[in-house]
Amino acid sequence: MIALLSSSCSLADKANVVRQIEGAGFRVVVSDLGGQCRVGVVGQGAEKLVALLSDLPGVEDVRPMAAPYPLVSRECHPESTVIKIGKVRIGADRLAVIAGPCAVESREQIITAARYVRDCGGEMLRGGAFKPRTSPYSFQGLEKEGLVLLAEARAETGLPVVTEIVAAEDVDLIVEYADMLQIGARNMQNFRLLKAVGDQPRPVLLKRGLMATMEELLLAAEYIVAAGNPRVVLCERGIRSYEPATRNTLDVAAIPWLKARSHLPVIVDPSHACGVRELVQPLAMAGVAAGADGIIVETHPKPEEALSDREQALSPGDFAALMGQLAAVAAAMGRTCA
Amino acid sequence: MIALLSSSCSLADKANVVRQIEGAGFRVVVSDLGGQCRVGVVGQGAEKLVALLSDLPGVEDVRPMAAPYPLVSRECHPESTVIKIGKVRIGADRLAVIAGPCAVESREQIITAARYVRDCGGEMLRGGAFKPRTSPYSFQGLEKEGLVLLAEARAETGLPVVTEIVAAEDVDLIVEYADMLQIGARNMQNFRLLKAVGDQPRPVLLKRGLMATMEELLLAAEYIVAAGNPRVVLCERGIRSYEPATRNTLDVAAIPWLKARSHLPVIVDPSHACGVRELVQPLAMAGVAAGADGIIVETHPKPEEALSDREQALSPGDFAALMGQLAAVAAAMGRTCA
Amino acid sequence: MIALLSSSCSLADKANVVRQIEGAGFRVVVSDLGGQCRVGVVGQGAEKLVALLSDLPGVEDVRPMAAPYPLVSRECHPESTVIKIGKVRIGADRLAVIAGPCAVESREQIITAARYVRDCGGEMLRGGAFKPRTSPYSFQGLEKEGLVLLAEARAETGLPVVTEIVAAEDVDLIVEYADMLQIGARNMQNFRLLKAVGDQPRPVLLKRGLMATMEELLLAAEYIVAAGNPRVVLCERGIRSYEPATRNTLDVAAIPWLKARSHLPVIVDPSHACGVRELVQPLAMAGVAAGADGIIVETHPKPEEALSDREQALSPGDFAALMGQLAAVAAAMGRTCA
Amino acid sequence: MIALLSSSCSLADKANVVRQIEGAGFRVVVSDLGGQCRVGVVGQGAEKLVALLSDLPGVEDVRPMAAPYPLVSRECHPESTVIKIGKVRIGADRLAVIAGPCAVESREQIITAARYVRDCGGEMLRGGAFKPRTSPYSFQGLEKEGLVLLAEARAETGLPVVTEIVAAEDVDLIVEYADMLQIGARNMQNFRLLKAVGDQPRPVLLKRGLMATMEELLLAAEYIVAAGNPRVVLCERGIRSYEPATRNTLDVAAIPWLKARSHLPVIVDPSHACGVRELVQPLAMAGVAAGADGIIVETHPKPEEALSDREQALSPGDFAALMGQLAAVAAAMGRTCA
């Protein structure tokens, strides 16, 4: 439910509105964009406050919220959110490019990758330390050692790092080393984990589940924000379809659909969306042309030696080429890149 | 199977290679691109010619064809095909924009549409006269009257017209009026119809079935070319997925995947891909950024009065805005537009 | 719209109701089941007759029809329809078993198959003469010769035959030889073909498209019935999903869902649903346990030599075993089999 | 890799084979079924033992394992596994019927449900205490209080209880109260949780993810077994498809496919597979006819008052009717029921 305050509403009246809602046990979201103050009421049973709020001084109108995800919706937060990570701004004019290997494999590998990512204009480094793998017999990541190496790569290059978290019990450890926590596609509806990353200080990169609807993605984001962390970046990374030629099917329409409904930034992962190197660049271009705020892409100093996702990792040369091509599309979209 | 001729192969030897293959009952595809002459052998049992061909003068190598669609594959036809329709070139540098209403509804409607499509820089007019509808009780199109009106709109504006054909028995009638025949998604595997449009003089716009793999699309195109008509344009128009928020899911990766494997042009239909007006423009942008040779888009002088596809038709103003935005992305891709 | 007649309505009043509806240009469906006479009004704009009908003598109530497929719906035709083909009854207590090879390949093959199908208790013979194939280079069927051989197999065994029709232009030819016409999955929305089989004397076996919703299947059946042919049998044959281990995914829920909404019989095709021999028997069992009125199954005298669908054809021994197992499940469902 | 021992292999030689494999750091799986002893070698790099094993006395043959899930595969464990939970046997001749409400809501509700489930012949009680919900604002379960009530219902009726676990940190708590732990569809690839339930004493009911392949399900089971817990029951509960009329699409073929490849029992959840009451019974029948070892079904004393899954819960009367109908199909399959 949203209460719209009148343009003549006093600060005291506004404070009273907030106090009444909180006093009734609900959460409040306040937005002052464009001279119109909106006060959103979040929680089950909010509709029973209609009469109370309608009668308060300064309240012009009270209306239901359409979206079941009030905190991430634009309904009571119309302005787009920009997530700041060090000097990086995700959701701002400059396209955010996050790149790096699927998994951290060695000091040399991750530092080499970080260097050329930075030199080509990439803004953040990705690399998995805890890897969720379909088979128990596959390489599961270097775990804490991987985190240490990521931190070294950051020290060396200045790039903030994002890495995946797969269990609530790892929060403290990962927060110590990483600048952003990634929730992978397979954990998008691991609700206990969503609550855990909602209760720690780092921003969160939330990937769409490979079987999730767009609404389910927004509800997953709502879990994180409701738990106390408003800094969430959404990521479209391809969904499962019947088409066998690509690993997944990039749902490029998700980018404008999500951005129209949520104030959170949306980026695209062209690597997992297709699973084959030849399609990474066109999918990155498509994502940016559809309005994405950035990309997250897999690159490896020596793709042919990668321990995971070998088929989709860009070589350093491929990555440099991609950055050049992205710049033109970014410019066409009124954005800068690198 | 492909025979690669040596650089010193004489014209007489080349002619002999072709004669031997045809004499054995196979179809021949010849490509001379880049100084390397390839002679493709098409038909079941082609592999039994290996020994014969290997021994012919001028033949350097004989190797299997990987793709089950030899005529539309780049394997023995590496250069991209440009389809000419009057002054229009689909597959050339200039982005081909085909626009118009879902169905032809009246003289005023189609001529009004044709005029603003032309004035905004559109190159071809679309409009359905025979409409395949899910329910027998829905509007099924004006049929012959619709074709006549399309021809009037062409006379008025100079725009070539493309219209859907739904049965082989209509070929002669439609060929009389239209410049290009469209095979709709539901008929992509209506093989008798594919053969029929393969045996008439107009180019064909072949839409991907809503349940078809990309390979099945290329095999459907192969039916048309094998029946004698090499002028086929492929169209990605969204596939069916579990996501309920959009009518279909645009498989934007299909564009570069198809272009890498086939020499035929590939365009994108953003209207059917999403089914909602708000997403048409970002999907058109995404398709062009992924390398599409053009778009086919639904626009109606008064979308709110359209007899079909009302939710996805662009108004004249929306269409003009789209053309402006497309121009920037087209330029970023090294193409012109309008 | 449905008019419910009162129990005291005279035959003259009933005739008048029908006359008024037809006089207004609508189609009438009358059902007298269970002492309650329902008169359905079919056609666009039927709702404008509400006032007229409500005032007629003998009319108790007039209410809207919920389903967009009035002719195949149970709303004004609550009793289940039984389709009679010679001595065969599809939709009756006895489970209808239709079996035979994917394609008619030779006299010996089809007559051998017909004999063991009959001897094991099968009631109808299937076999393709016109084969819709994904590739233009695959075996496309014996065409007319195949029809002649099917007729010979019928003469030899007494089994009625069902065969696929792929184009309206073949109607007269196939009607001459076959007892039932099949619309394959790829043609479920070939609306011109649906109209054509709606205007000929044989019953129709309508397969669900491989990415069609259940409602779309009922609307396709509505096309046939609206064109004049009420004898339609629906067939669930698996839909396309992301699961790569089977050719399709049998949507077994479609059987009870369709039977609850439509009076038409529903059978199941376990062969195409999985594409592998080992799963045909359990899927046939599942279909019958879910309420199917019969099965259509592929069997070949020598599966390893089949020209198409080799992996899913049952051997004569497999087929005999299946019939034995089906009998037990049929009995559990209150049906007989063989 | 599997070593096949000769029929004359001595116990000492057999012990030596096992010792050599374990000494090289691999896990051993031994099966003596049917007079043929198989020794499976599990772990990455097993193939390097080929030469060593081939030369050992008593070894007849060494061959690779085809399946990437050696512990749950029938390759070195051909006999079917029966899971014992108190007096219940899942995977034995008697069909296992697990029933109860979606969520534990109150003492009266769960004890009432347990009583009629037992009286109708159900063997285990289900009920959620920790509920994974799509929205953070939905009822999330009674948590520990729910567990206590489940234990009371067990004490009252003698039915063992199964309940869902959503996070590794809850293992100790749930193990204290429940007889079996359920991994829900959304957590099928929560690998940390799989490892956690692999390292505790209760059997595990593992549900297929709503867009998981069958192979991914077996690999998820492999995680649990590899972590030390061999007592896993697989559950097919419907997958996500494009069909909007049902909540999910039951992949009934999964039952025979899984049972052919894995020695673990497989049960079916008809409630989540369709999401609507009218289809639960036919889907349960279909699952049993396809070879399921049991069912897990939602039933609520007053479905219209249920806090979750209201549309799919069977009333006590519906449940009693289902049990009667299941008995007939179970008998047709050579099983007993209730």
What does this structure look like?
Four copies of one chain form a homotetramer. With 338 residues, chain A is α/β, with parallel strands linked by helices. The first copy, chain A, folds into two domains: 2-63, 2-Layer Sandwich (Alpha-Beta Plaits), CATH 3.30.70; 83-332, Aldolase class I (TIM Barrel, Alpha-Beta Barrel), CATH 3.20.20. Helix content of chain A is 34%, strand content 17%. Chain A has eleven helices and 14 strands. An eight-stranded parallel β-barrel of chain A has the order 7-8-9-10-11-12-13-14, surrounded by seven helices. In chain A, strands 2-3-1-4 form a four-stranded antiparallel β-sheet. The mean pLDDT of chain A is 94. Chains in contact: A-B, A-C, A-D, B-C, B-D, C-D. Chain A binds chain C through residues 240-242, 244, and chain C through 211, 240-242, 244.
Q: How much of the polypeptide of chain A forms β-strand, as a percent range?
A: 15-25%
CATH topology of the largest domain in chain A: TIM Barrel
The number of domains of chain A = 2
Q: What structural class do the secondary elements of chain A suggest?
A: alpha/beta
Tally of helical segments of chain A? 11
Question: Would you identify the CATH architecture of the largest domain in chain A?
Answer: Alpha-Beta Barrel
Radius of gyration of chain A: 21 Å
What pattern of helices and strands is seen along the backbone of chain A? Answer: EHEEHEEEEHEHEHEHEHEHEHHEH
